[in-house]
Amino acid sequence: FHSFPLPVLSPVQAIVVYTDKEVHGAVGSQVTLYCSFWSSEWVSDDLSFTWRYQPEGGRDAISIFHYAKGQPYIDEVGTFKERIQWVGDPHRKDGSIVIHNLDYGDNGTFTCDVKNPPDIVGKTSQVTLYVFEKVPTRYGVVLGAVIGGVLGVVLLALLLFYLIRYCWLRRQAALQRRLSAMEKGKLHKTAKDSSKRGRQTPVLYAMLDHSRSAKAASEKKAKGLGESRKDKK
After folding, report:
1. In angstroms, rounded to a whole number, what is the distance separating the alpha carbons of residues 33 and 37?
2. β-pairing verdict for 62-68 and 71-74
3. This protein's superkingdom (predicted)?
4. Per residue in 148-204, pLDDT tens?
């Protein structure tokens, strides 16, 4: 018996399709239905996109658009035949379409299906369209605006706090430098006066000694003259 190695088969990776969960549009306006995909294969020349539409409350889905062999095809059946525009780019794995002149009857679910041979296994992706007289502001947008405003106020308050603190510290530093300079001036003046007084004291003592010496000499001289006069008599 001989054993032969069995070939290892790589698992097939399914194609993944992406769309928005829901989109909103106003009556008379237009809306873009985005569709992209991920595939383990290079973009094939046989790449195809198919869009289907299921009305709100309806059971059956109808094909409204198809792209294959590099050409877009708009189905002649349904209310979208003159209102669909192809805006996709297959080389960028984009199969988006635009629906013009929206109406209340357009409410429903749109399904995007992508085939990229040999990668043809995978689930479709769905997006729900809601048409309003006026597009409502989403709660997330309002919440984001509120949070952004609060953060802006907080950042402004912090900026003002640090600016005021910086000015106060700078003023305190200048005042401290001025006080230090004044203290140094006083000390220098005191030392100068002490030095001056120290220099003057010896001079005064010298003057006093000189005055005492002169007085003693004068008294001695006067005494000598008195004695000489007595001797003459």
Report:
1. 14
2. antiparallel
3. Eukaryota
4. 888 888 888 988 888 898 898 888 888 888 888 887 776 666 666 666 665 555 655
pLDDT in tens, 95-148: 999 999 999 999 999 999 999 999 989 899 999 999 999 866 654 565 577 788
Q: What is the pTM of this model?
A: 0.55
Q: Are 124 and 112 in contact (CB under 8 A)?
A: yes
